[in-house]
Specification:
Blueprint: H1 7-14, H2 18-26, H3 33-46, H4 52-59, E1 64-69, H5 75-90, E2 94-99, H6 104-117, E3 121-124, H7 132-140, E4 145-148, E5 157-161, H8 163-176, E6 181-185, H9 192-207, E7 212-216, H10 222-235, E8 241-244, H11 247-259, E9 269-274, H12 277-281, E10 287-290, H13 293-309, E11 317-320, E12 323-325
Parallel strand pairs: 1-2, 1-3, 3-4, 4-5, 5-11, 6-7, 6-8, 8-9, 9-10
Antiparallel strand pairs: 10-12
Helix pairs in contact: 1-2, 1-3, 5-13, 8-9, 10-11
Length: 336
């Protein structure tokens, strides 16, 4: 196996000194055009790439950002990551993404790895059972950090969603159509986000004295939503509408109704949460609470860059509104 290309091997190939190669790569020094051309040709021939981590150690400017998220396979998360990548890459940063799967032990290993191998900042959805020691660990290493969705007791900058207001809006929409047997559908762990969303649903149901609240758990996947909807229909056939914890579980519920020979938006109305791309193209198209995940990702990146630029600024907390997008899965309940 041939040796890995280094400054030294480029220097030998170009017939110059190592400091000269370094100056050419950094665009500094008084280098003749002939020498610069020779160095760049050697770089191309040897496929040399500068060691950015070593450069960061010398300059103190680390251009690598870590992103710890839960359920990387969820299309909402993929859209958020895409937005963050678009903004950060345009600013000259590289984003690396790891999935904690909501496991605090896995999360701790990933955070230690980010700190050990050097990252210039962190975008982070804290795992459900994140301890205060984890926040202390990040503060001790002075890693610029922005938490996302789950604030917990974070001392860092935070970007979140006004979850309770959103689900109250969705529930009010269903109540205004005449539904009274409305279930909150999806999620299993009582995370801060799910707790807030259930609170908004319960607030709207309580305001309508004749309504009947019901919390029905499900993993936030399409398959789990399908199976949970089948179980819900058997246990509570009186339910005519769902406020869902996310679009994926809502799409699973819609699929379950279709397999049962029912039409989402006719026998049972459904409201999702997130407005992932599949929501608009589903059959029927899903009514949902839109939060523009790609825009959220860009916003996350911008907050982090502002923190890197001004590490001593007080922490900021930003919460965005969700917009109810009415499509085909909500309508008045069928008359008996």
């Amino acid at each position: 196996m041939s040796e890995k290309p280094t400054l030294a091997s480029v220097a030998r190939a170009a017939g110059v000194s190592i400091p000269t190669v370094s100056q050419v790569m950094r665009g500094t020094g008084r280098i003749s055009e002939e020498t610069r051309t020779a160095v760049l040709e050697a770089v191309k021939k040897l496929h040399y790439v500068p060691n950015s981590r070593a450069a960061a150690m010398r300059s103190g400017d680390n251009r690598e950002i870590g992103f710890l998220i839960n359920q990387l396979s969820n299309p909402f998360n993929a859209e958020v990551i895409s937005g963050a990548v678009d903004l950060l890459e345009a600013e000259g940063f590289l984003l690396s993404v790891l999935d904690t799967r909501d496991d605090a032990a896995r999360q701790h290993r990933h955070l230690q790895s980010f700190v050990k191998h050097g990252r210039g900042g962190l975008l982070w959805v804290p795992a459900y059972s994140t301890s205060t020691e984890t926040f202390d660990f990040l503060r001790a290493h002075k890693l610029p950090t922005v938490t996302f969705l789950r604030r917990l007791n974070s001392p860092f900058d935070h970007l979140g969603i006004r979850n309770a207001d959103a689900t109250q809006q969705a529930t009010d929409h269903l109540l205004s159509l005449g539904h009274r047997h409305i279930a909150y559908f999806g999620g299993t762990l009582m995370t801060a986000v799910r707790r807030e969303r259930i609170a908004g649903y319960e607030r709207a149901m309580a305001a309508q004295g004749s309504a009947h609240p019901l919390i029905w758990p499900s993993e936030n996947t399409k398959l789990a939503g399908l199976e949970a909807m089948q179980a819900l229909t058997k246990a509570h056939p009186e339910v005519t509408a769902l406020v869902c914890n996310g679009d994926m579980v809502a799409l699973g519920a819609s699929l379950a109704l279709t397999r049962m020979g029912k039409t989402p938006g006719k026998e049972v109305s459904i409201v999702g949460f997130d407005d992932i791309p599949d929501a608009a193209v589903a059959t029927p198209a899903l009514t949902t609470l839109a939060v523009s995940p790609h825009h959220l990702g860009r916003k996350l990146g911008r907050i982090l860059l502002d923190r890197i630029a001004d590490p001593d600024a007080p922490p900021t907390v930003v919460e965005v509104n969700a917009t109810l997008v009415i499509r085909e899965t909500t309508a008045p309940p069928m008359t008996p």
